[in-house]
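User: Second chain of the day. Same drill as before.
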Amino acid sequence: MIKPIILAKGNFKSQDLITTVSESNRKIDPTRENQLDILWQEKEKNAKEKGKLIYNGLSYRLNSLKTENGKLLLDFGIFDFKTRECLPETQDYYETTEEYWRKGCHTLATVKTSDGKYLMVELSGKSMNKNSTDFLGGIMETEPTIRSGIDIFKSLYKELEEEAFIIETDIADSILKMIYINGNTNVGFYFEILLKITSDQMQKRFDSKAKEIDIKSLKTMSRDEYINVLENHNPNKQFLATQIKIQ
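Assistant: Same format as last time:
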């Protein structure tokens, strides 16, 4: 793993983001690329044996980020899940320079209810996600397509609805707080979400719906409990706990 790198930090709204999509500018090492198919076949085999979900789709990676006149200029590339998932397992990957990194994009959010509770999800273990408890959010796939800043926000909203049945009209406020390269060389778009509804209302709705196969339960906790979960989790979440505490 690497030490996380903060690329941008603030209180960004959709209008503060200017987006473009280009060809991926990830530098290619042919020797490393030749390992990907073998690694992916092994992942597929292991997933099948354990009855877990795995598929090779398309998602966004961050080609570049620049700041200009208070706006964030974000250029995205596209690559497949196979490359995204297998690159870090190639030989000496974490000894390479940044131009070789995967930089696969994902959203994640601190979601706070109107009565001051914090939401996370407990995972079923039926996907390739190795976490047992996680943020709401997910991989920035090519659907919905990113054409503007609002599409980055909508990528998160899609995950909120799929994972916890939070719809856009439930949201009182949505702020992009930080973009960073995490310890696994993926790029996190970290949001703060404030809901108009209480934790009880949220829990009742969740309990009445058919869940995503990867989601087991909705976790409701106080701020102290939330921070404690993050601080006792993996290094990426420990990093976020530190950032949340200083806000």
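Residues 5-245 form a domain with the Nucleoside Triphosphate Pyrophosphohydrolase fold (CATH 3.90.79.10).

User: Great, on to the next one.
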